[in-house]
Amino acid sequence: MVNKALLIGRLGKDPEVRYTPDGTMVTNFNLATDEQWKDKNGEKVQKTEWHRIVTFGKLAEICGNYLVKGKLVFVEGRIQTRSWEDKDGVKRFTTEIVASNMQMLDTKGQGKQMESADAAGAADVPGDDVPF
């Protein structure tokens, strides 16, 4: 069986950083993906889908330090659905992507260097000798 999500999109707002009771860093952010097509009248139609992304540990630290609203990123992870009861006793559900890998595809205002990181915290940040 396979449970894998691959997304390329832009952050809707800056990531939210928090910590678990045992001190593990958790970062949440929303990622927008778009699709476009022409309807039967030839009019351009655009649909935006929002995805909730959650990261843990070193990857959460990297996301919290480097991601900002509007940044274009590639996210790889698994799809997870959680449930809980709210304060009124109503059962709630959310579906999210638990990221294992993230790569920044642009660095608005910081040149065109590409940065990536995985859940183990291994970062790939090119040096100044990048030819573009």
Account of the protein in words:
There is one protein chain. The chain has 132 residues and is mainly β. The radius of gyration is 17 Å and the shape is globular. It has one helix at residues 57-66; strands spanning 5-11, 16-19, 25-38, 44-56, 72-85, 91-104, 115-118, 123-124. Strand 3 (25-38) and strand 4 form a beta hairpin. The N and C termini lie far apart (40 Å). The longest helix is centred in the middle third of the chain and has 10 residues, at 57-66. A five-stranded mixed barrel has the order 1-3-4-6-5. The protein has one domain (5-36, 45-123): OB fold (Dihydrolipoamide Acetyltransferase, E2P) (Beta Barrel). The relative contact order is 0.21.
Give the second-level CATH assignment, the architecture: Beta Barrel
Separation, N- and C-terminal Cα atoms: 40 Å
**CATH fold name:** OB fold (Dihydrolipoamide Acetyltransferase, E2P)
**Rg, Å, rounded:** 17 Å
Average residue pLDDT? 86
Query: Quick one: CATH class?
Result: Mainly Beta
Q: Assembly type of the shown chains?
A: single chain
The level of helicity is under 10%
Shape: globular
Q: Strand pairing plus helix content: what structural class?
A: mainly beta
Strand content: over 45%
Strand arrangement in the largest pleated sheet: 1-3-4-6-5
Indicate the low-confidence ranges by residue numbers: 109-114, 125-132
Question: Main beta sheet: strand number and arrangement?
Answer: 5 strands, mixed, barrel
Beta-strand segment tally: 8
**Secondary-structure element string:** EEEEHEEEE
